[in-house]
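Try this one yourself first.
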């Protein structure tokens, strides 16, 4: 880096010192509890390199990083996409800001980063990786740096072929998503292994013992050998399907020796590489499991800080609005847009329920007549934030004496009166968390004013029938005075702790949300060869989305037998949820897994087959042909891949009666 580049970055960093400091202060006032964040200024090429490396400055040598760098660079040059920042899950977190960003962009990404860091620090799923340490420290940068050095040393070792190391990494990476993402990460697992004893080649072992023919004939005769082999014929391991395939092959796998045509023990460096790849897979798992939640969370709080609290200056607001519009309008399944909309829905539904529970306690009001006797517009007028906190300036500080003390940070207010705080620039400093919640109450925002009255009669009945009669009010005004305006934010903070994308979508993707946001499912017709809208029903939309996020959207594979057919072959099973495997990719994957197992590998799965005649008949009748589900076993023995039909009984255990999305421990339910 030249001196001029260094001075330029230092100047940008100096200009951002105040926004960084005040963004952290505001985030904490709003109730967030982020990890400390270290900010770095980087140029365009450095940003692309960091994105390719997954947000870290050092990764192990491998061709995949160059491919990802090239893709990111071309996306920026030809696709119109721009990376404003990247932040990693670490304690402290490290965030990288692109030097070409405008001031508005820099403020936006700083507020975005603070929310990400809060999510990293407080979401239980990220805690699964740090659970083994017990202290909550991530130390990801140091871990990945150690991995980079170790693998570089293996590649530089004259006794190890560099190409073999890279190939071994390739083999491991095909299994990076076949881990037990719902379990606490442990470096070494206790697994059910094969019973100790003589291995499959008993005669060879006896030869190595050097026993005389007389002793062998008396003790280890052919009848004894045959009996021992028969007694072990039913031995299977693991005793239960093993979801962490990567751990299983690390523990029991071997390497295939092409010269001898047999399996032999892995070299120490090979097991070490598998350990490192598995550790990194577990580290990145939580980010894959919470993409919608995490990006939506960051977008929500970024918007709250930049717009609602005016963190974007008057001369920066239009620039920021353009920035946010581009992010939320990105095509495809946009995690920012969907995630932010769901978080707003969580906030609005919680606040609505809080209001309705209080209204239903008013004398003379029940769930049957509430819509007839209560004017929701009048309710919203009462819930509008008082003028004293809606607009705070240095000239209006005295008006704060008329609002509840719990809304005001008295120490900050005194400092503002002494001109120690620029309250015109940072009015939020004189408010508490409760005061900010009142100032930004969601139901009275223009875009949400119809939400309160949109409640269905069924929902009203559900609330009313199970309402504890622990308080009664004489009037609507008295009831509304008791409404907790922090309820929405508090609920969001609870949900942020315990959910992942699957449980988040399952809990909050309701018919109301889907109708309001115009979500629908579509599918490809075998009969017409066209795509068409298939449903707008909540359960169908939810199931379609959930299938994209269960197990990172990848097939769920487990080890079912490490001694398949009593021949030390590996048997994997595809947990079938109605979505077929791509058979061509499955074949290529088994070829890689063979290298990690050293012996033939098998995969049981279920496919849907449709007869061409049935397709033609269905086309003429304008309906879809009915597919038949059949069992298949794919096998690779080191030379060829074979696919054969198997009886339904052999794969029936792989089918799901209903897709199981219950992936959250009960004690986490919020």
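Now uncover the answer:
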């Amino acid at each position: 880096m030249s001196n001029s580049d260094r001075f330029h970055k230092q100047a940008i960093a100096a200009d951002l010192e105040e926004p960084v400091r005040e963004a952290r202060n505001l985030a904490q006032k709003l109730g967030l509890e982020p990890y400390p964040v270290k900010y770095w200024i980087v140029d365009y090429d450095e940003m692309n390199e960091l994105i390719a490396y997954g947000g870290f400055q050092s990764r192990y040598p491998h061709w995949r990083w160059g491919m990802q760098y090239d893709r990111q660079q071309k996306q920026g040059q030809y696709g119109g996409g721009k990376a404003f920042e990247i932040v990693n899950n670490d304690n402290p977190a490290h965030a990288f800001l692109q030097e070409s960003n405008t001031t508005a962009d820099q403020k936006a990404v700083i507020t975005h980063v603070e929310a990400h860091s809060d999510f990293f620090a407080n979401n239980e799923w990220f805690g699964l990786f740090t659970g083994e340490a017990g202290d909550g420290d991530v130390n990801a940068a140091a871990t990945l740096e150690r991995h980079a050095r170790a693998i570089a040393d293996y590649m530089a070792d004259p006794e190890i072929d560099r190409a073999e190391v890279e190939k071994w990494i390739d083999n491991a990476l095909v299994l990076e998503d076949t881990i037990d993402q719902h379990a606490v990460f442990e470096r070494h697992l206790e697994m059910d292994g094969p019973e100790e004893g003589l291995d499959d080649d008993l005669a060879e072992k006896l030869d190595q013992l050097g026993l005389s023919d007389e002793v062998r004939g008396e003790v280890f005769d052919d009848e004894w050998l045959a009996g021992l082999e028969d007694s072990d014929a039913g031995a299977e391991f693991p005793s239960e399907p093993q979801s962490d395939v990567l751990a299983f092959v690390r523990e029991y796998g071997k390497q295939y020796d092409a010269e001898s045509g047999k399996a032999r023990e892995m070299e120490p460096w090979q097991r070490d590489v598998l350990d490192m790849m598995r550790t990194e897979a577990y580290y990145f798992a939580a980010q894959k499991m919470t993409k919608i939640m995490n990006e939506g969370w960051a977008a929500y709080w970024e918007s709250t800080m930049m717009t609602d609290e005016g963190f974007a200056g008057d001369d920066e607001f239009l620039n920021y609005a353009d920035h946010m519009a581009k992010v939320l309008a990105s095509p495809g399944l946009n995690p920012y847009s969907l995630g932010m909309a769901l978080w707003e829905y969580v906030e609005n539904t919680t606040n609505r329920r809080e209001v309705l529970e209080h209204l239903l306690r008013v004398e003379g009001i029940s769930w049957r007549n509430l819509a007839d006797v209560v004017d929701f517009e009048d309710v919203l007028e009462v819930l509008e934030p008082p003028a004293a906190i809606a607009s705070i300036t240095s000239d209006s500080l005295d008006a704060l004496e008329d609002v509840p003390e719990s809304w005001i940070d008295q120490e900050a207010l005194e400092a503002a009166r002494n001109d120690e705080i620029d309250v015109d620039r940072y009015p939020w400093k004189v408010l508490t968390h409760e005061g900010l919640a009142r100032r930004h109450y969601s139901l009275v925002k223009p875009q949400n004013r119809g939400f309160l009255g949109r409640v269905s009669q069924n929902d009203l009945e559900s609330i009313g029938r199970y309402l504890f009669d622990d308080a009664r009010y004489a009037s609507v005004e008295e009831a509304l005075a008791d409404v907790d305006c922090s309820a929405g934010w508090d609920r969001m903070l609870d949900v942020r702790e315990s959910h992942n994308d699957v449980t988040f979508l399952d809990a909050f993707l309701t018919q109301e949300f889907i109708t309001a946001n115009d979500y629908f499912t579509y599918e490809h017709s075998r009969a017409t060869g066209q795509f068409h809208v298939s449903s707008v029903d909540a359960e169908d939309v939810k199931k379609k989305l959930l299938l994209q996020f269960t197990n990172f959207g990848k097939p769920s594979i487990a080890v079912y037998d490490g001694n398949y057919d009593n021949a030390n072959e590996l048997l994997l099973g595809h947990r079938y949820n109605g979505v077929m495997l791509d058979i061509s990719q499955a074949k290529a994957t088994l070829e890689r897994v063979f290298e990690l197992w050293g012996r033939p590998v098998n995969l049981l799965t279920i496919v849907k087959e449709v007869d061409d005649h049935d397709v033609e008949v269905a086309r003429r009748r304008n309906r879809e042909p009915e597919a038949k589900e059949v069992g298949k076993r794919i096998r690779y023995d080191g030379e060829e891949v074979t696919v054969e039909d198997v009886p339904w009984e052999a794969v029936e255990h792989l089918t799901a009666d209903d897709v199981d999305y219950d992936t959250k421990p009960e004690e986490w339910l919020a």
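Discussion: DSSP finds 30 helices and twelve strands in the chain. The longest helix spans residues 335-359.
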